[in-house]
C-alpha cells in the first residue's frame, strides 16, 4: 500500500480519502447459489444499490474493492474463492451473504459443503438469512460504509483482522 | 487438422460440408454466402493447432458456477466437457437424515428459482406412498402457486439469456415483473425465494384475504408485458441472427439424453407431465404445450416465452375454480411412509422433475433419488457444442436453461 | 401399455430371467447382472416397449443384499415407464454400461460409480463427476457416516420425527 498503511493521515485528508472510498465500492459478486438471485434483485431497479455507490460492474476480482460471497461454498469450490480473494487489490472488503456462506446453513451436516467462507478468507460483514432479503444486504452495505468512513488504514493493517459486523445482531 | 475458416460474425456460422482436403467450410445461418476463407500462400487451408480453453467455474458469461473445458481448433469447438460438482451439496444424503417435513424445506433449494414446484414433488411422492387424500382447495392453490413459480422462473431466463448475449435491458424489465410476483408470493407464504408453503397432505396456511384479487389483477398486467418481451427480444434482428440455426438439438438425441422442458419442446416433442400423466388438476384446465420446429436456440427461447403465456392461461382458469374448504389434512405426529418404493414425476419450470423414494417405514426415507431436469439437459451440452464457433458457445449454453444447483444437487 | 400388460410382455420374452413387481402403478423388473444388458436392449429396441426417453439411473443401498442399480426409462410414444433393477455385490460390483443405448446414461453411470462404488464395464470415462478428485469413499452408501452429525448433535430443538 505504501504510505497509507505506515503513516496516520491527518484528519481532513483521511475524511476525504475515506469518503471517496466508501461511495465507490466496485463489487464483485461471487454468485454461487440461491442468494445470488437476491443479490441480482438488490442490484435491479426496485432496491437499486447503485444509489449507495455500489457498482456491480467489476470485470473481475482485480478491479473490485468489495467481494460479496453469496451462496453455498463447497469443498470443490473453496480453492477458487481463496484465489479470487488473493487476486483482489488492497484495501479489500468481503461480505458473506446468506447462511450458507456464513456457516454452512441448511447443509451444516453435508459431506461436501465448507462450513462457512470465514474458514478460507476473512469476512467484514455477515448478512444472515436463507436467503436474506435485499434490504438486509443494503443494511450490510451501509454498515460497511460507516466503518470505511471512519477507519484508519494504518490501524486496519496493524491490527490484522477486525471484529466483523453482523447485520441484525 | 486444417480448417477453412470464415468470419461469419453475427450471422452465426454453420458447418455445411467437408471439402475434399479434410477441412471444414462454413456458411452463414441464413444461407447468404460464405465469408472470408483464410488460406496460406500455397493456397492451402490455414493450419491450426488445437487449444484447450477453460471457461469457469466463475466466469461472467455463465450464470452460476459451471465450468466447461473446451478444445478449440481455431474458432471451432472440437469437443466440450462440462465439469460439474461445484455446487454439489449432497441433497440425497441429507434427505436420508431428515424427516418428511424437513425434506420439504431442504429440496426447495436445489432449483432455487422454482421452489414451490420442488416441494410439491416431495409432497406428492410422500402422499402417494401414504395414500393421503389432499383437500381440493389445497390442490387448486398448489396449482396456482406452481404456475406463478413457473412464470417467475421463466422471467428469470427471459431476462438473463439476452443478458448473456449482450442485451442488458430485458433483465431490468424481467426483474420489475419478478418483484411484483414475489410481493404476491411473499404475502401468501411469507417467503421471497424459498417459500416452504407445501406440506405433506396440504398447505401451510390458507390464502390471505385479497390475495386472489391481487393475483387476478396481475395476470393482464403480465400478459401485456410478455407481449413487450416478444417485440423487444424475439423481434430483435440481432437476437435472431445470433440464435437461429445455432445449437440444433434433434428430437431423438434429446430423448436419448433425457432432455426435457423447453429444450425438448423446442425440438418438437410435446412431452409434458401435465398433459401426458396429469397430476394435481391439470387434466381439468385447458392449455397448450408450445413446441418449436427447429430445436435451435431461438426456438428454445421462443418456447420459454410461450410457456409464460400458457401458465397465465392456467392461472386465470384456476382463479375461478378454487372451492372453499380446508387446506390441510390431519396428520399423525410422526409421519412415516409405508415400506416400499414410489415414483412421482412433475413438470418443473426447467423440465421434468422426478422423485424416486424408497422407504423402510421409518421416519426418514431410506433412499431419496432426485432426477433433476438440469442434470440431464446439461449432459447434452457436449453434443450441442461440438462443431459450433466460440462466439456461439454462450448462446448455446444459455439456451439450455439450467440452474447450477439443479445440476449438482 | 399399462404396467400389467407391459409386465406380461416382458415375462413372455424373458421368462424366469426377470422378476416383475408393480408398485404404485410403476413396473419394476429385477434381473441378475448377467441379464441386465439384454433386458435393457430389449426395453430400448422392442417396438412395443420402445422406451426412448432416459429418465435416470441410480443406486440404492440394500445393505447385506448389495447395491441395487435402478434404471428408469420412459416411452414418449407409448407413455409408459419401465424400471430395470439389478443387485450387485457391495465389493467390486459391476454392470455392463447402457450409455450406448441412452446417451444420458453416461453421466448417471459416472454419478452412481462415484456415490455407490459400482463399476460399469464399457463406460468410456468413469471419472469422478461431482466430488473433488481427492475425495475418498462412496458417500451415498449407508456405512458412510456424516462427520458433522457424529461430532455435533442436531442443533434443532427436536430430532426428526419427534
- Order of SSEs of chain B: EEEEEHHHHHEEHHHHHHEEEHHHH
Tell me roughly what share of residues is in helical segments of chain B: 40-55%
Gyration radius of chain A (Cα, Å) is 16 Å
Mean pLDDT of chain A: 85
Largest sheet of chain B: 3 strands, antiparallel
Tell me about this structure.
The complex is a heterotrimer of chains A (169), B (409) and C (162). Chain A has six helices and six strands; from the N terminus they run H-E-H-E-E-H-E-H-E-H-H-E. By secondary structure, chain A is α/β, with parallel strands linked by helices. The longest helix of chain A is centred in the last third of the chain and has 17 residues, at 134-150. Chain B contains 15 helices and ten strands. Chain B is globular and about 85 Å long. Chain B starts with 12 loop residues before the first strand and ends with a helix. Chain C has helices spanning 3-14, 33-45, 105-116, 147-151; strands at 18-23, 26-31, 53-61, 67-74, 81-88, 94-96, 119-121. The B-C interface holds B 84-85, 88, 90, 92-93, 97-99, 102, 128-129, 252-253, 255-259, 269, 271, 276-277, 334-336, 340-343, 345, 352, 354, 356, 358, 363-364, 366-367, 369, 371, 375-376, 379-380, 383, 408 and C 23-24, 26, 28, 52-56, 58, 60-61, 70, 72, 76, 79, 81, 83, 102-104, 106-107, 115, 128-132, 139-140, 144, 146, 149, 160-162.
List the defining traits of the structure above:
heterotrimer, A: 6-stranded parallel beta sheet, 6 helices, globular, B: alpha+beta, 3-stranded antiparallel beta sheet, 44% helix, disordered N terminus
Amino acid at each position: 500500500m505504501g504510505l497509507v498503511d505506515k503513516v496516520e493521515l491527518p484528519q481532513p485528508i483521511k475524511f476525504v480519502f475515506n469518503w471517496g472510498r466508501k461511495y465507490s465500492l466496485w463489487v464483485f459478486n461471487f454468485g454461487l447459489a440461491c442468494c445470488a438471485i437476491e443479490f441480482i434483485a438488490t442490484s435491479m431497479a426496485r432496491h437499486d444499490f447503485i444509489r449507495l455507490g455500489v457498482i456491480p460492474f467489476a470485470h473481475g476480482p482485480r478491479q473490485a474493492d468489495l467481494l460479496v460471497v453469496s451462496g453455498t461454498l463447497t469443498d470443490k469450490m473453496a480453492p477458487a474463492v481463496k484465489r479470487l480473494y488473493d487476486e483482489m487489490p488492497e484495501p479489500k472488503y468481503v461480505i458473506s451473504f446468506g447462511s450458507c456462506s456464513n456457516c454452512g446453513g441448511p447443509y451444516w451436516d453435508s459431506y461436501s459443503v465448507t462450513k462457512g467462507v470465514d474458514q478460507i478468507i476473512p469476512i467484514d460483514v455477515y448478512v444472515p438469512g436463507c436467503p436474506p432479503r435485499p434490504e438486509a444486504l443494503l443494511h450490510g452495505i451501509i454498515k460497511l460504509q460507516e466503518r470505511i468512513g471512519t477507519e484508519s488504514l494504518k490501524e486496519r493493517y496493524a491490527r490484522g483482522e477486525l471484529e466483523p459486523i453482523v447485520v441484525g445482531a | 487438422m486444417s480448417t477453412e475458416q470464415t468470419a461469419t460474425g453475427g450471422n452465426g456460422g454453420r458447418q455445411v460440408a467437408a471439402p475434399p482436403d479434410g477441412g471444414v467450410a462454413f456458411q452463414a445461418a441464413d444461407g447468404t454466402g460464405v465469408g472470408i476463407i483464410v488460406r496460406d500462400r500455397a493456397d492451402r487451408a490455414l493450419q491450426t493447432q488445437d487449444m484447450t480453453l477453460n471457461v469457469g467455474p466463475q466466469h461472467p458469461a455463465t450464470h452460476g458456477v459451471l465450468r466447461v473445458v473446451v478444445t478449440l481448433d481455431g474458432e471451432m469447438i472440437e469437443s466440450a466437457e462440462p465439469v460439474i460438482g461445484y455446487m454439489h451439496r449432497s441433497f440425497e444424503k441429507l434427505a436420508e437424515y431428515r424427516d418428511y417435513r424437513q425434506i420439504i424445506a431442504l429440496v426447495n433449494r436445489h432449483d432455487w428459482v422454482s421452489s414451490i414446484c420442488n416441494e410439491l414433488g416431495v409432497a406428492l411422492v410422500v402422499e402417494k406412498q401414504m395414500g393421503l387424500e389432499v383437500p381440493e382447495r389445497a390442490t387448486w392453490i398448489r396449482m396456482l402457486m406452481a404456475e406463478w413459480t413457473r412464470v417467475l422462473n421463466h422471467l428469470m431466463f427471459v431476462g438473463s439469456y439476452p443478458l448473456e448475449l449482450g442485451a442488458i435491458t430485458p433483465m431490468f424489465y424481467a426483474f420489475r415483473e419478478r418483484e411484483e410476483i414475489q410481493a404476491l408470493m411473499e404475502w401468501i407464504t411469507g417467503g421471497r425465494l424459498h417459500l416452504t408453503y407445501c406440506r405433506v397432505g396440504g398447505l401451510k396456511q390458507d390464502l390471505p384475504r385479497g390475495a386472489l384479487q391481487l393475483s387476478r389483477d396481475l395476470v393482464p398486467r403480465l400478459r401485456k408485458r410478455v407481449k413487450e418481451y416478444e417485440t423487444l427480444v424475439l423481434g430483435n434482428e440481432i437476437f435472431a441472427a445470433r440464435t437461429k440455426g445455432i445449437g440444433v438439438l434433434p428430437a431423438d438425441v434429446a430423448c436419448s439424453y433425457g432432455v426435457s422442458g423447453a429444450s425438448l419442446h423446442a425440438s418438437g416433442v410435446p412431452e409434458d407431465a401435465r398433459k401426458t400423466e396429469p397430476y394435481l388438476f391439470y387434466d381439468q384446465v385447458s392449455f397448450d404445450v408450445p413446441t418449436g420446429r427447429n430445436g435451435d436456440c431461438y426456438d428454445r427461447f421462443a418456447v420459454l416465452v410461450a410457456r409464460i403465456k400458457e401458465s397465465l392461461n392456467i392461472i386465470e382458469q384456476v382463479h375461478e375454480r378454487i372451492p372453499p374448504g380446508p387446506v390441510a389434512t390431519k396428520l399423525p405426529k410422526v409421519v412415516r411412509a409405508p415400506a416400499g418404493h414410489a415414483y412421482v414425476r412433475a413438470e418443473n419450470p426447467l423440465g421434468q422433475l422426478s422423485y424416486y423414494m424408497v422407504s423402510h417405514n421409518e421416519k426418514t426415507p431410506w433412499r431419496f433419488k432426485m432426477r433433476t431436469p438440469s442434470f440431464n439437459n446439461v449432459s447434452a451440452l457436449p453434443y450441442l457444442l461440438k462443431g459450433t464457433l466460440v462466439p456461439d458457445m454462450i448462446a448455446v449454453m444459455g439456451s439450455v436453461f439450467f440452474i447450477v444447483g439443479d445440476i449438482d444437487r | 401399455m399399462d404396467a400389467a400388460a407391459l409386465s406380461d410382455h416382458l415375462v413372455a420374452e424373458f421368462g424366469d430371467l426377470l422378476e416383475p413387481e408393480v408398485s404404485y402403478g410403476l413396473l419394476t423388473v429385477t434381473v441378475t447382472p448377467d441379464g441386465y444388458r439384454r433386458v435393457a436392449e430389449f426395453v430400448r429396441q422392442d417396438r412395443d416397449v420402445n422406451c426412448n426417453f432416459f429418465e435416470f439411473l441410480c443406486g440404492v443401498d440394500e445393505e447385506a443384499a448389495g447395491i441395487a442399480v435402478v434404471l428408469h426409462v420412459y416411452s414418449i410414444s407409448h407413455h409408459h415407464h419401465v424400471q430395470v433393477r439389478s443387485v450387485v455385490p457391495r465389493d467390486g460390483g459391476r454392470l455392463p454400461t447402457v450409455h450406448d443405448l441412452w446417451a444420458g446414461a453416461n453421466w448417471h453411470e459416472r454419478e452412481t460409480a462415484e456415490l455407490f462404488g459400482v463399476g460399469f464395464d464399457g463406460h468410456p470415462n468413469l471419472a469422478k463427476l461431482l466430488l473433488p478428485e481427492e475425495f475418498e469413499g462412496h458417500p451415498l452408501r449407508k456405512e458412510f457416516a456424516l462427520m458433522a452429525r457424529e461430532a455435533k448433535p442436531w442443533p434443532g430443538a427436536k430430532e426428526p420425527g419427534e
